């Protein structure tokens, strides 16, 4: 989408590295397990997942457009102002509810820590600050660090799904592949910027 809407150029090397990064991300999330789609009454879950991925990708594109017109603190505030009511709208449309009184104090503190590390206001503030001078295509793949952060949280007592998980060999290989791909994508982008300035 960045190539279409922002006219960012995609080199053959970038496409190769991007594909490699996605492979690493898959290993982090699923290991060597094959893809198995079984709807079994879960159609809405798949649709929401696809919608979330689409919104995440378009969010980066729209954010770049917004940053051409406003400063990054304003862009951060706009993100919250738009995201919160949209989230509540989906909650009401899907008739979802949650009894917050059922959350144990320890779990609540753990969720707050995870939110602060991965996606709180501070994280978004830094994100928009960096996005000012970063192409959307680079930002999109840098955002694949989220699975790495997720798995690092999962192997600690902060794991929101219970006791710490064991990290597998494929997970480690996926982390290495993803990190190497992101670093090489960043270096290529830096080299292209230097060529433009020269």
Automatic annotation (TrEMBL):
Residues 45-186 form the EamA domain. The keyword Transmembrane applies. It is found in: Membrane. InterPro entries: AA-Vitamin_Transporters, EamA_dom, EmrE-like. The chain crosses the membrane at residues 12-32, 44-63, 75-96, 108-129, 141-161, 167-187. It is a multi-pass membrane protein. The keyword NADP does not apply. One of its GO terms (cellular component) is membrane. Keywords: Membrane, Transmembrane, Transmembrane helix. This is EamA domain-containing protein.
